[in-house]
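in:
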């Protein structure tokens, strides 16, 4: 299991629709949207590794659950290290200008993410945007991480 696998799975969904509050079934390998950011990342992680990450106690993907995951020292990366690590996850806490957000690092300073209604699932610039945390998934091998 490598971080590159997560990038590959996420990339296959570029162009699909975004809907805030969408609920992807993690075990539905054929799901193709619509997505919200946390559902997209959690679904991709589950498809890549069979691991439920970034989910609430009830098993629903949620950006707040990704914050909790990323704050765990066992998973934590600096944001800069996450930019350089294919398959790492970038997390933004809710701020005065918007809700929390979650994206997958492509390892080259960019992201693959369910970005918003206007964008859908896209590759985007990661650097130069607000990110608070970076993290990994237990049991996954990452190239580029310290």
């Amino acid at each position: 299991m490598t971080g590159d696998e997560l990038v590959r799975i996420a990339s296959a969904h570029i162009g699909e629709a975004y809907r805030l509050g969408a609920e992807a079934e993690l075990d539905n390998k054929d799901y193709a949207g619509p997505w919200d950011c946390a559902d997209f990342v959690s679904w991709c992680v589950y498809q890549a590794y069979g691991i439920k990450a970034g989910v609430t106690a009830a098993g629903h993907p949620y950006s707040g659950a990704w914050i909790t995951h990323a704050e765990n020292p066992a998973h934590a990366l600096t944001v800069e290290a996450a930019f350089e690590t294919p398959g790492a996850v970038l997390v933004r806490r809710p701020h005065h200008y918007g809700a929390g957000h979650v994206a997958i690092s492509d390892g080259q300073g960019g992201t693959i993410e369910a970005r918003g209604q206007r964008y859908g699932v896209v590759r985007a610039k990661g650097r130069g945007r607000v990110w608070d945390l970076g993290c990994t998934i237990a049991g996954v091998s990452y190239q580029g991480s310290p």
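note: The chain has one domain: 3-135.
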